[in-house]
Design a protein that fits this description.
Elements: E1 7-11, H1 16-27, E2 31-38, H2 43-59, E3 62-67, H3 69-84, H4 91-110, E4 115-117, E5 122-127, E6 130-135, E7 158-159, H5 168-177, H6 199-206, E8 214-217, E9 223-227, E10 250-255, E11 260-264, E12 270-281, E13 290-296, E14 304-312, E15 315-325, E16 332-337, E17 340-347
Helix pairs in contact: 1-2, 1-5, 3-4
Length: 348
């Protein structure tokens, strides 16, 4: 990023990571334009937009507001539909692929801007002469998992400066040293379109069938209790099952067709195999190829060694070397070679 010829459109959420991304690019001599992505009106959105505006003013860059509410509507619909199917969705991955590194790139092209950037804790590296996503330097904050679905052809248009910072506390110190009031803005722990983290209210409005009561059973089919909506559960869940037992019990399966939730001891939530569809690859992977890799099955999973078999251009299977907890339908299985992201898909 040494050349001052680079023009960059930076997605600015008002948070510290995207603020520092914009600051680092500006400091490097890039021609930076900030973009606040509007997904709909809410008090939280108004506060974030105001924070992004203050940061842009402090950095001396233009901030444009882009209304992407129409594109975001489909992500909310998919989120609700997945719960209705008894799966556990990850809407952030769809947002990254469709909007932050989809629609935003289209917007950059329309504005004559070369690159887009975000505050993700991930890196863009050169891999055999082609761009590839790698884990962020601040490993405990790594967000590369959420970038697997970004189109391969878009990688050459992306910059991820925050991912080069090796510690989240250092990100905050950079923001503070620049006088950015986002330096102490807390990280969001919620899904941005779910008010007060109450996704059940959203399901009630959009897919009430996901809150259909049903039986809680064990692996043998014996009824252990009742629940008030299978959409309230996810595979691997331990708390809030409403069933007393002499050992911890976990959700092992959700059957939307019968509104049945199956629970069992820890051993029954462990697995060594998964199949995935909707695959997206950042590298050349021939059909029927089998290779060893590290596979991450959820955002806060460190990854586990396994053997990947590509069964079709958009499907693959993984056999893990050891048991993995809570392989959850609807979550992503993301494949790495060391720190380099190769691709991923949606767990079936």
């Amino acid at each position: 990023m040494a050349s001052n010829s680079k023009s960059v459109l930076v997605a600015m959420s008002g948070g510290v990571d995207s603020s520092v991304a914009a600051a680092l690019l500006t400091k490097s001599g890039c021609d930076v334009t900030g973009a606040y992505l509007s997904f709909g009106a809410s008090g939280r959105a108004a506060d974030a937009a105001a924070s992004a505006r203050r940061v842009a003013e402090k950095l001396g860059i233009e901030l444009v507001v882009l209304d992407f509410a129409d594109a975001f509507a489909s992500i909310i619909e998919d989120f609700a539909a997945e719960y209705a199917r008894g799966r556990t969705p990850n809407p952030c991955i769809h947002c990254n692929a469709r909007i932050k590194f989809g629609r935003l790139i289209e917007q950059a092209e329309a504005m004559g801007i070369q690159y887009v950037a975000t505050g993700h804790h991930a890196r863009l590296i050169d891999s055999a002469g082609r761009p590839a996503v790698a884990r962020g330097r601040a490993r405990q904050k790594d967000q590369s998992y959420a970038l697997f679905a970004v189109a391969r052809e878009h990688l050459c248009r992306i910059l991820l400066p925050t991912g080069e910072v090796d510690n989240k506390s250092r990100v905050r110190k950079i923001a503070q040293s620049l006088g950015l009031d986002s330096h102490d803005r807390p990280d969001s722990q919620e899904i941005c379109f779910v008010a007060d983290n109450d996704y059940v209210s959203l399901l009630q409005k959009r897919v009430p069938q996901a809150l259909q009561p049903g039986d809680i059973v064990n692996a043998a089919g014996e009824v252990l209790g009742r629940h008030d909506g299978y959409g309230r559960f996810t595979v691997g869940q331990r708390r809030g099952l409403g069933v007393a037992a002499g050992e911890p019990l976990y959700v092992t399966r959700i059957d939307a067709a019968t509104a049945t939730v199956t629970i069992g001891p820890k051993a029954e939530v462990m697995g060594r195999h998964l199949s995935a569809s909707g695959a997206n690859w950042h590298c050349d992977v021939p059909a029927s190829k089998v290779f060893e890799a590290t596979v991450q099955v959820r955002y806060n999973h460190g990854g586990a060694p396994g053997r990947v078999k590509v069964t079709a251009p958009d499907t693959f299977e993984v056999d893990f070397a050891d048991d993995v907890s809570a392989i959850t339908p609807g979550q992503a299985a993301v494949i790495y070679d060391g720190d380099t992201l190769l691709g991923g898909g949606w767990i079936d």
